[in-house]
Amino acid sequence: MPRVPDRQRIAQDIRDKIASGEYNPGDKLPSLREMIAHYGVSAEPVRSALLVLQAEGLIEGHQGKGTYVSPRPRPPESRIRHGVGATR
After folding, report:
1. Cβ count within 10 A of residue 2
2. CA pseudo-torsion sign 12, 15, 21, 25
3. Phi-psi region for residue 12, left (φ > 0), alpha (ψ -120 to 50) or beta?
4. How far apart are CA 36 and CA 43, in angstroms?
5. Per-residue pLDDT in tens (0 to 9) along the chain, 88 residues
6. Alpha-carbon separation of residue 60 from 2, 15, 72, 78 (angstroms)
7. Is the pTM of this model over 0.85?
């Protein structure tokens, strides 16, 4: 079975925590340092996972303040209609 890249594994774990209600809209996510320690990876896969989740509309980053669950995560179909995640 092929190994799932760290960024995909991390992004999916955070998606699951948002879907389950462990992370609610407006909640601050753990810091980059905390996620590095939790997932046992370097900063790059964590940053990449967070960028993917931002593009999906699930989280929002605020310079110097942290990363938060979006107030109202957009459903996948609205992201597709608005071109987020579209490939060329």
Report:
1. 4
2. positive
3. alpha
4. 6
5. 789 999 999 999 999 999 999 999 999 999 999 999 999 999 999 999 999 999 999 999 988 999 999 997 555 554 444 455 444 4
6. 31, 13, 11, 17
7. no
